[in-house]
Amino acid sequence: MTTHVFHRTPERPAIATRARGIEITDAEGKTYIDSSGGAAVSCIGHGDPRVVEAIAKQAATVEYAHTGAFTSEPAEALAERLCRSTTLPLDKVFIVGSGSEAVETAVKMARGYHLARGDEGRHRVIARRQSYHGNTLGALARGGHVARRTPFLPMMPEALLVDPCFAYRHALPGETPEAYGLRAADSLEAEILRLGPDTVSAFLAETVVGATTGAVPPVPGYFRRIREICDRYGILMISDEVMCGVNRCGPFFAIEEDGAAPDIVTLGKGMGGGYQPIAAAMCTAAVHDAYSDAGRSFVNGHTYMAHPVACAAALAVQDVIRDDGLAARVAPMGEKLRQRLESRFGNHPNVGDIRGRGLFQAIEIVADRDDKTPFAASDGMAGRIFDACRDLGLLVYPGSGTVDGIRGDHLLVAPPYNVTEAQIDTIVARLGDGVDAGLAQVGR
Ligand code: PLP
Predict the structure, then answer these.
(1) Which residues cross the membrane (predicted)?
(2) Does the domain made of 16-47+325-441 have the CATH classification 3.50.30.10?
(3) Hey, whose CA ends up nearest to atom 7 of ligand 1?
(4) C-alpha 73 to ligand 1 mean position (Å)
């Protein structure tokens, strides 16, 4: 069949015709368990009638009113809800349409903060080699996702990337997690001193790393040290929680568990749960007040920012999380998912690591479990396993990242917060079969 849609891959993907709960059905009638909610997007499952109704109601009331002249009831209510949902002292919400826009907003917000305070030299943003912050050129320039960056390198400013916090690959033999965390964090200070502290605006990091290496949580103490370093040099700390935020790891923001309060936090996927494209950058009163004290506006706008229908959908998604008690399910169901993954893959010769927080878990596929040797890029392991799982009726989120020259293949499992124990059993069983089928294709 011909298609006029410019798809990313040479082949046209299956056509999704129905999505309900944890399942998606295609035009051929095949049904898949959506165990990763796409890219950790679907947090309440598909097709919830309460969200559908909220969307229809808002579309019939005010579908769009330009933010140059208007705010809207759902935007105001959503911003208030988000501020109340986190234990972090975040006070203002800038609502946009995608995670990439949220990251662009966050780094511009930091720059504007310094300008408002008369600190004009601060413009540099330091990030980490193991990171993905989005697909627009500005956000891509801050990340370390080699495959997604490579075609566009000549078009991007130089990235200022410091050590990741990735204990599985980088902790030294015998080093405690705490000692490793301090060592990893201290690479930020070295970079700040190299660049000159007065030129640095912000440090940007995913709390639990998603796309590049797959559900990698920080070690204890890492982000506390990062906060200390940022404070020492007057640098804003930006936590990118586009993937790991909104209760995906348990608390509203994952960083709430790490004892460090960022100045700006981005959120996205779980904010609208897939019902509408929506994301945001939240900041402290201190960041916002720097603008108002200086009588400055934040020069940043998108036609569809704070879109009323998207805000109504996101508010309804947050209502579902609250009304169905879903946030409280994440830790216990995440624990169950982890136990099942451990019992299926704990001794698997090609699963090197099982990691994550809450309902954000991943397995790392390696050629040799003992010395952690990765598969070659030409083996395409993550893609093979994704395909094998899809044939078995399971959707997972595959990824292959390269950090400091070391490749990795991983599969991410991030089901909706209302996933049942029986569904977890089916997910892990199919994933196990998919992993073995993918490995068999390369003679393992
Ligand atoms: N930041 C993180 C941590 C992400 O995982 C992503 C997307 O995967 C983005 C930013 C970009 O979000 P979007 O794809 O909605 O632009």
Answers:
(1) none
(2) no
(3) 134
(4) 27
Convert the pLDDT of each residue in 30-81 to its tens digit: 999 999 999 999 999 999 999 999 999 999 999 999 999 999 999 999 999 9
pTM exceeds cut of 0.90: yes
Q: What's the mean pLDDT when you consider all of the chain? A: 96
How is the chain split into domains, by residue range?
Answer: 16-47+325-441, 51-323
What's the burial of 293, exposed, middle or buried (CB within 10 Å: 0-12/13-18/19+)? exposed
51-323 fold: Aspartate Aminotransferase; domain 2 (3.40.640)
Question: Which amino acid does the sequence have at 412?
Answer: L
Q: What is the ipTM of this complex?
A: 0.99
> Which tokens is 439 given?
């490995």
Give mean pLDDT, residues 151-163: 92
Q: What is the pLDDT of residue 10?
A: 86
Q: Are 184 and 209 within 8 A, CB to CB?
A: no
**Distances, alpha carbon 349 to alpha carbons 379, 411, 434, in Å:** 17, 16, 15
pLDDT tens figures, 75-123: 999 999 999 999 999 999 999 999 999 999 999 999 999 999 999 999 9
Ligand 1 atom closest to Cα of 136?
16
Q: Do domains 16-47+325-441 and 51-323 have the same CATH topology?
A: no
Tell me the backbone φ, ψ of residue 338, rounded to 5 degrees.
Answer: -60, -45
Residues lining ligand 1, Cβ inside 6 A: 39, 98-100, 103, 132-135, 206, 210-211, 240, 242-243, 268, 279
Ligand 1 centre to CA of 72 (Å) is 26
